[in-house]
Amino acid sequence: MNIFWRELKAGRKGLIIWSVCMFLLIVSGMGKYTAYSSGGAGSEVFNQLPSPVKALMGIGSLDVTVMSGYYALLFLYVELTAAIHAVLLGSSIIAKEERDKTAEFLLAKPVSRTIIVTSKLLAALVNIAVLNLVTLFSSLVMVAAYNKGTDISAEIALFLFSMFIVQLIFLTFGALLSAWMRHPKSSGAAAAGVLIGSFVVSKITDLNERLAVLNVLSPFKYFSYNRIVAGGGLSLGILILAILLAAGMAALTYFFYGKRELTL
């Protein structure tokens, strides 16, 4: 548990910065809603945008003149921000001992590598959960301040739950890369590159539905925004598979970290 608290304390400043940035992202995003709501100056502009442009912007068939559609548009960028935080956190929390030349000190303690990885992953889990809760609270407050129509608190909760699953996937992916790569200090850049690639895939499939099979490569497409907005909730099958994916990558993190020769 000492390792767990040590990691929480070490990541406290970074978590505060990410939380503030997420809050400001939501505040600034919601501040633009009045321009796009029904009767707003920007609503007509959105209606005239070509379909490919709407797809690239994350609008698709969403009606951004109502709060549920507009929040889904904003959520695309909120989720991307949270995913970047998760993948960088996952890679750095495993690689930091070799990066900071403290691996010898850590391994000198009477604890196994399994306990080390467990403590680090639990600390990372707390970090992404806190960021998720900050995002949820900020979203509920800001949406309530601007929303003049139907309450969408339930939809926001589903959006944030789906985001937590995506955070889990990228957290464990970053940790896996860090445990597997020969030079773990490079894992952050590699993990971020894969994340951006998966985001690009999600945009490509939005532009061409015939490439929808590629959505399996992008966690950003595992949960349908349109389905949540329409009241259909989350697909239970996809939810289970996503959790199993994260669990599998976590298990591989234990395996590779237990086998690797650490640079002291």
Topology:
Layout: H1 2-10, H2 12-30, H3 33-36, H4 43-48, H5 51-57, H6 67-99, H7 103-107, H8 113-146, H9 153-180, H10 187-207, H11 225-229, H12 236-259
Helix pairs in contact: 1-8, 2-6, 2-8, 5-10, 6-8, 6-9, 6-10, 8-9, 8-12, 9-10, 9-12
General description of the model:
It is a single chain. The protein is mostly helical and 264 residues long. The protein has one domain. The protein is 74% helix and 0% strand. It has twelve helices and no strands. The chain starts with a helix and ends in a 5-residue tail after the last helix. The mean pLDDT is 84.
Which key phrases capture this entry?
0% strand, 264 residues, mainly alpha
- How big is the Rg? 20 Å
Helix content: over 70%
Derived structural class: mainly alpha
Q: What is the count of β-strands? A: 0
- Secondary structure tally, helices: 12
Coarse morphology: globular
Question: What is the makeup of the main sheet?
Answer: none
Beginning-to-end CA distance, first to last residue: 23 Å
Bin the strand percentage. under 5%
Number of domains: 1
Rounded average pLDDT: 84
Unreliable stretches (pLDDT < 50, length at least 5) are none
Topology pattern, helix = H, strand = E: HHHHHHHHHHHH
